[in-house]
Design goal:
This protein has about 220 residues and is mostly helical. The chain has helices at about 1-15, 25-30, 35-40, 45-50, 50-65, 70-90, 90-105, 105-130, 135-160, 165-180, 210-220.
């Protein structure tokens, strides 16, 4: 019945428009009563995002099942991939919803509230892992926001392409940036070479040859 209500809603939205479609229209097409609709969906907006509550619950459970041995940034990136999996399960529906959401300001606002809940779930997990560290809460919030931003950048590019291409590859590439910046490299991984930064202070108007000599002297070169 839940799937029938979603299918009915997305048949009507393109035909009549989201604002013009009522709950009565949806239940009439689905062949059920109003009470059945509200048993599954608190509002008409919720029928547009029928799978987010389940996905949020799955993400929260996934994070809770982690251990202290899990690298925290990798764990939240893996949690974000659960959202991608939800979208990739039904590309046609996901693209249709994306296009509808772009047209309806109220749905965009609703979607932002959903995204905020995902971000809060990631941040709460990280706050627990960084508890007691300097700026632990700040670091948790920044990383959670970065994960959501990277994931959504890749996801929306895939949706704009009408679901063409490999969404996993795009999201993995985006999340890889987050892990490279904030994550802890695995034990035994080669450390990245660090380049020295040299600052030379010279008087204004000093001849160029003198500035060059100061640089060479600092670098220990003739």
């Amino acid at each position: 019945m839940r799937d029938a209500l979603v299918a009915a809603a997305f048949r009507l939205f393109p035909e009549r428009g989201y604002e013009q479609t009522t709950v009565d229209d949806i239940v009439a097409l689905a062949g059920v009563g109003r009470r059945s609709f509200f048993r599954y969906f608190p509002s008409k907006e919720d029928v547009v995002f029928p799978d987010h509550e389940r996905c949020l619950a799955d993400m929260t459970a996934f994070l809770a099942d982690g251990t202290d041995e899990d690298e925290p940034v990798r764990r939240v990136c893996d949690a974000a991939r659960l959202v991608l999996r939800m979208y990739a399960e039904n590309p046609t529906f996901s693209v249709q919803r994306y296009r509808l959401t772009k047209k309806v300001p109220g749905l965009r606002a609703y979607e932002l509230s959903v995204v905020w809940r995902y971000e809060r779930a990631l941040a709460e997990y990280l706050r627990g892992r960084f508890d007691g560290r300097p700026d632990g809460a700040l670091r948790a919030d920044v990383i959670a926001a970065a994960v959501v931003a990277a994931h959504n950048n890749a996801l929306r590019s895939w949706l704009r392409s009408a679901g063409q291409g490999d969404a996993d590859t795009a999201v993995n590439h985006a999340l890889g940036h987050v892990q490279a910046v904030f994550g802890t490299p695995p034990a035994g991984a080669p450390a990245e070479e660090q380049e020295d930064v040299v600052v030379v202070i010279s008087r204004r108007g000093a001849p160029l040859w003198r500035v060059v000599r100061e640089i060479e002297s600092t670098l220990g070169r003739d």
